[in-house]
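Researcher: We're teaching a course module on how sequence relates to structure. For the next exercise, students receive a sequence and then see the predicted structure as C-alpha cells, so they can try to spot secondary structure elements on their own. Here is the exercise chain.
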Amino acid sequence: MREFEAHVRRFLDRVPAEILALEVDDVTRSARWHRALHEAGLAAIAYPRRFGGAGLTPVHQELFDRLASQRRLPVSRHGIGIGMVYPTLVEHGGDELRRKYLVPLLRGEDLWCQLYSEPGAGSDLASLQTRAVRDGDVFRVTGQKVWTSGAAEADLGIAIVRTNVDVPKHRGITMMVIDMRQPGVTVRPLRQMTGVSEFNEVFLDEVVVPVSDVVGDVDRGWRLAVALLHNERRSLGTGRGGRQPASFEWLVEAARDRGLTGDRLIRQELAWVHSANLILSWLKARSEASAEAGRGPGPEGSVGKLWRTRLGRRAAALGGRIVGPAAIAGPAGDGGFDRWSYVMCDAPGMSLGGGTDEIQRNTIGEKVLGLPREPSVDREVPFRDLLTGKHTPTGTP
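Model: And here is the predicted structure for the students to work with:
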C-alpha cells in the first residue's frame, strides 16, 4: 500500500499541473486527464485488468480518492461513462461490447450520455415509449428523450427502448448503445436558471443501432436499467459524479470574510455541514466495503444519494444566508457573488438528477426497510393496452 500511495503522490504532483495549464475546453481537459489516469494505471482501480482496470482493491480506490480530493483537479465530464456505463458493461455486457467500449471509455476517448427519461416517463421510467424495431442486423430507433446530461457533446449514449408492446411494460424493454453522431439524432439544449445547459432534449428519428450493440438480451433490459441506476446512485452518493455540494471550506471562508464566524446560529449550521460531510464519508466507506466484499451496488446507494442531496441543499441555503442578497444580485466576479448565485440556483437540481428524493425514499422503504410495495394496477397489463402505449412517439418535429 505504501508503494501505491507513493505512486499516486508522484502522479498527482506531476500530471495535473500539465493538464490544468492547457488552454482547452472542459471536455478536452477531462479526456486528457482520464487518459493520463489510464496510462498511470489509476483508472478503474478496483476493477480487473482484463476490463482495463488496475486490478487492485476498493481500499486502493479509497486512498486515491482521498489523496486526489486534496488537489485542484480537472472537473470530469466523463462521469456518466466511468461511474455508470463502465460498471454496467463489466457486469452485463458481452465480451464483444467490453472489447469495443471499455478501454476507450476509461481513456476518455468517448464521452457518454444516459438516454433514459422521456416526456411521459420520468419517475415511472418503465412507461417509456421510444421504439426500436428490428430490421435485419440492426434496430431502427424512433422517439424522444429528455433531461439528458451532456448529450450535446456525447459520442455515445446508453439507452433503454421499447422493443415489445405485447408484454407488460417492464418486460419489453431493451438496453442498447446509440451512436450520438449519426444522422437522425437531434439534440436541443435546455437552458437552466443557472444560465448553463447541462440538460438536453434528444430526438431519435430512425436511428440505426447494430444488433451487436444490444446490452444483454432483447426485451430483458429492465434489470440492466435498474443496475445502471444503482451504479448512478452509488456514483452520486460517493461524490464521484453529478453536482457537488458547496464545500465546507467555501462556507467557512465566506463567513470569515463577512465577520460571521462568531454568530452562534451560523456556527451551528457550519457544524451541521461538517457533520453531514463526515456522515457522507462513512456512507462512502460502507459502499466501498460492500464492493470489496463482492456485492454489487444495491438500494443502499439511495441512502447516500438522498443524504448528499440534503447536504447540498442545506449548504447552499447557508451560503445564501452568509452572503446575503448579494448572492443573487451581486455583479459577476465581485467577491465570489457569482459563485454563490450559481450554487443556490444549482442546488435544487440535486433532488432531481439520479432519481427524485421521493424515488430514493420509496427505494429505501421497500428494499432496505422491507415496507410493502406501492400499489401498481398496470404491472401485468400488456403495454399496448396502457394509456401510455396508445400512440407511437414521433422523431424530430
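Model: If you want an answer key for the exercise: The first helix runs from residue 2 to 20. Strands lie at 112-115, 131-135, 138-145, 156-162, 173-179, 185-190, 199-210, 214-215.
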